[in-house]
Specification:
CATH superfamily of the largest domain: Isopropylmalate Dehydrogenase
Number of domains: 2
CATH topology of the largest domain: Isopropylmalate Dehydrogenase
Structural class: alpha/beta
Shape: globular
Distance between the termini: 32 Å
Order of helices and strands: EHEHHEHEEEEHEHEHEHEEHHEEH
Number of helices: 11
CATH architecture of the largest domain: 3-Layer(aba) Sandwich
Number of strands: 14
Helix content: 25-40%
């Protein structure tokens, strides 16, 4: 029986890049997956009036994994907050119990010239894994407003911190055994709880070296000396901001995937970039982040490590051959579009020319 994958192409360039990820999955593992398509975000708002239809959430729960393109865009910016496309994303995370967001920031050697930092700061490469708590904190806390004021609440329980910390410790064990926990414990009481839980839990992982850093210093250190970081664990809002900063250091946000995981069950995989509606349908978007998200799906949801590695190797092959989408193009390279990039990666998987 084929493995069941829910596909939400989403808005803007979402359908463009999702199509290429499906092409690559079918090349690396023919006749393995059954893809079922659903709507969320702006597309769902336009068709049924809500950002996350019950049919979509129900279909995702029945699947083994979810591939998500991108949601939102300026078209829906004036809607009330409860109807914004982003509510569809938050609803998927909450409804599927996805509390752990993995965001790798990798500087590809073929793209080192695209890095905005001095060469000596990234000599030898860059490979950072940001482990972001996804279903707690200020994005999900109590909120309100009146005519004169508004508030959003940052709140965490010990259990919420412990479960994301355990994920981070295990991930650090599989990397360089260095874990940096980022908070604002000098000011925020919620961060003081965060740090206490991390320190207590560290006793169960004596092989992992744990350090702590305030978020404002971390933001500075990422551009001052990024190679000091390996695995980072942090809360929802800090992780949202810092992972985008780490992504930009790698040269293009169009290269970086993400995985959202829970305790077993369904995982959701998506690029970290937005919907870029200005280039939607123009064959200009970089599909590599979406394709790498599909590789993460193979690795984390299906245990298909070899197939995931083959996709990553195929991307290296195409980059080595000098092919670039517009966002990573430089003089002397061969500029190609979304469809051609997906086709060449799929072709590399088959060992064809």
């Amino acid at each position: 029986m084929k493995r069941r994958v829910a596909v939400i192409p989403g808005d803007g360039i979402g359908p463009d890049i999702t199509k290429e990820a499906i092409r690559v999955l079918e090349a690396v593992a023919p006749n393995t997956f059954s893809f079922e398509y659903y709507k969320a975000g702006g597309e769902a708002l336009d068709s049924v009036g809500v950002p996350l239809p019950d049919e979509t959430l129900g279909g995702c729960k029945k699947s083994e994994a979810v591939l998500l393109g991108s949601l939102g865009g300026p078209k829906w910016d004036t809607l009330p907050s409860h109807l914004r496309p982003e509510k569809g994303l938050l609803g998927l995370r909450g409804g599927l119990g996805l509390f752990c967001n993995l965001r790798p920031a990798i500087l590809y050697p073929q793209l080192k010239e695209a890095c905005p930092l001095k060469n000596e700061l990234v000599e030898g490469g860059l490979d950072i894994m940001v482990v972001r708590e996804l279903t707690g904190g200020i994005y999900f806390g109590k909120r309100g407003r009146d005519e004169e004021s508004a508030f959003d609440t940052e709140e965490y329980t010990k259990a919420e911190v412990e479960r994301i910390a355990r994920k981070a410790f295990v991930i650090a064990q599989g990397r360089s055994k260095r874990l940096c926990s980022i908070d604002k414990a000098n000011i925020l009481i919620s961060s003081q709880l965060w740090r206490e839980v991390i320190n207590t839990l560290s006793e169960e992982y004596p092989d992992v070296e744990v350090t702590h850093m305030y978020v404002d210093n971390a933001a500075m250190q990422l551009v001052r000396r990024p190679q000091q970081f390996d695995t980072i664990v942090t809360n929802n809002i800090f992780g949202d901001i810092l992972s985008d900063e780490a992504a930009q250091i790698t040269g293009s946000i169009g290269m970086l995937p993400s995985a959202s995981l829970g305790d077993g069950g369904v995982g959701m995989y998506e690029p970290i970039h937005g919907s870029a509606p200005d280039i939607a349908g123009k064959d200009l978007a970089n599909p590599i982040a979406m394709i790498l998200s599909a590789a993460m799906m193979l690795r984390h949801s299906f245990g298909m490590e070899r197939e995931a590695q083959r996709i990553e190797e195929a991307i290296h092959t195409v980059l080595d051959e000098g092919y670039r989408s517009a966002d990573i193009y430089s003089d002397g390279m061969k500029k190609i579009g979304t469809t051609e990039m997906g086709r060449r990666i799929a072709t590399a998987l088959k060992g064809e020319k």
